[in-house]
User: What shape does this take?
Amino acid sequence: MYAHTKVQFQDENGYNHPLTLLAAGAIAGVPAASLVTPADVIKTRLQVVARAGQTTYTGVADAAKKIWQEEGAKAFWKGAGARVLRSSPQFGVTLVTYEIMQRLFVIDFGGTLVTLFIIMENIFTWNVFVAMEIIIFLYPYYVLHGNKKLF
Assistant: This one.
């Protein structure tokens, strides 16, 4: 669903802005989060220690059977709305992060190659530059004010 939604949100040049990727991921997260709710209900019931008078479960099949018999089919969808509201934005953030990282670290088949080495080189260069600024500009300030150690 994500791939189809992403295509629908592309501009005329086939580009997806990060906000459209976020929206596509969140939209795709709605069915993904809601369809696993029955399994999540069973898992939660198995994890919770039953209080006095509550039903106990011996396994997945036993839990599914007892929930169905005692509460009906609706019980499997308890919390689906809250799960969608929590998980759908999480899907969006995860997928937009993936797409941005893919743009940064993977070959762009349009002809541009961005390698991890080049990015790491730029980060290293920036860190060295900042360290040099601290030493050149801030160290004399520390020395003038009686501090002999910078760090």
Summary: The mean pLDDT is 79. The two ends are 52 Å apart (CA to CA). The CA atoms of residues 59 and 80 lie 22 Å apart. Residues 115-151 form one domain.
